[in-house]
Amino acid sequence: MGSLHTPPQRINSLLLTCIISLSSPALGSSIVPDDIAYKPKSTQEASTTPAESGVVVGTGELPTTSTNVPPTQYLTSSQCPDQSRSHDNFYKSVAITQFLRSSPHTANAGNLYAAEAGLPELIRAQLRQKYQSIGPAVIPMGFAHPDLSETQLKQQAQKIARQTRTQFVLSGTIVDMAMLAPDTTYNPNLYRQLANGFHDLTHIKIFDQRTRVMSMEVHLRDGFTGELLLTKTYSTNGIWNQRRPIGFDSPAFAKTHYGKRVKSLASKISNELAQVIHCQPFMAAIDSAPGQTQVLLHGGANNGLHAGDNLSLYQVIMVGSNSEYQVTDTRLVKRETRLHLSEVYPAHSIAIIEGGSYLNGSYLAASE
């Protein structure tokens, strides 16, 4: 006859968990800094229960629909679901700026102040690991403030692209990293201490109220025109059970449930960025001299170019604004003339203008 008694090892584990939980320093005064907790804008918001706010606490999932999250926006030319316009056989460069943060105090729990640089690095690592045709690089500078006009944002993207000699510029803003109920981690009552110990021992996440969110906005722009190619808000959440200031870029953070969710979100972002980038043609600047039918192309074998390739030619035209003084927009106009690559080197190429034409003005070469 089988034994009806609970295995002693299991009982010992549960007793040890209870003892550790009861001996927690959280039984003393609160250790929650004033600015760790999520601060609602009004008293009415502060009294909202998790069920009323639409957040499912402890399930590791946020509501899939939200009126505050803008829909994904693509330019028409960046969609190629059938891969008919895919240009993934060319190597394209992306400059990733440091992210901004709209609510700095939400990083206090755990001292996650390095998220501004850590999130771009996670996205860069995912792009480099999974997509060999994309060359991402994190640069030590932030993008312009998001409250600037669209024209100013375009100019900022163009400036960064010129300085880094990249085709695309990726920027972002960390919207929220708040804990939904900070006291459940930093100042739990007796019942919550026992519940936390149970969740940590069994790794069961349901009903675990130590939920922390991650929400960010990501913007991908063309470096030559500054035009917006992708803008989207990404969100996730996970269990934050760390009471120590482990930092964002530490191995301890990567092992947490929240850290794993953030990494998974970075992987999703990289996949959607790669899809948009693959749909864009490879483009490179051209240096030309008056009266010369040969031009220097800022792209070579490292970008997937070969001697004998033909590229399209686009003229860069600056169009003045009808409403703003001394403000211009960049337009690309395709010309009938094509470029024929005669010599290809690692980082540059020599191209011949078909028909013996001359170039006057600023031009770009693009893959066909």
What can you tell me about this protein's structure?
- The chain is 27% helix and 27% strand.
- It has 368 residues and is of the alpha+beta class.
- It folds into two domains: 31-41 and 49-279, Rossmann fold (3-Layer(aba) Sandwich), CATH 3.40.50; 283-366, Thrombin, subunit H, CATH 2.40.10.410.
- The longest helix is centred in the last third of the chain and has 23 residues, at 257-279.
- It is elongated.
CATH superfamily of the largest domain: ABC-type transport auxiliary lipoprotein component
Residue share in β-strands: 25-35%
Q: Give the helices and strands as they follow along the chain.
A: HHHEEEHEHEHHEEHHEEEEEE
Distance between the termini: 77 Å
CATH class of the largest domain: Alpha Beta
The low-pLDDT segments are 22-78
CATH names the topology of the largest domain as: Rossmann fold
Shape: elongated
Count of domains? 2
List keywords for this structure.
single chain, 27% helix, Thrombin, subunit H, 2 domains, 9 helices, 368 residues, six-stranded antiparallel beta barrel, alpha+beta, seven-stranded mixed sheet, Rossmann fold
Topology:
Layout: H1 8-22, H2 43-46, H3 50-53, E1 73-74, E2 92-98, E3 100-101, H4 115-130, E4 134-142, H5 150-164, E5 168-176, H6 183-186, H7 190-202, E6 211-222, E7 228-239, H8 251-255, H9 257-279, E8 283-287, E9 294-297, E10 310-320, E11 328-344, E12 349-353, E13 362-366
Parallel strand pairs: 2-4, 2-5, 3-5
Antiparallel strand pairs: 1-7, 5-6, 6-7, 8-9, 8-13, 9-12, 10-11, 10-13, 11-12
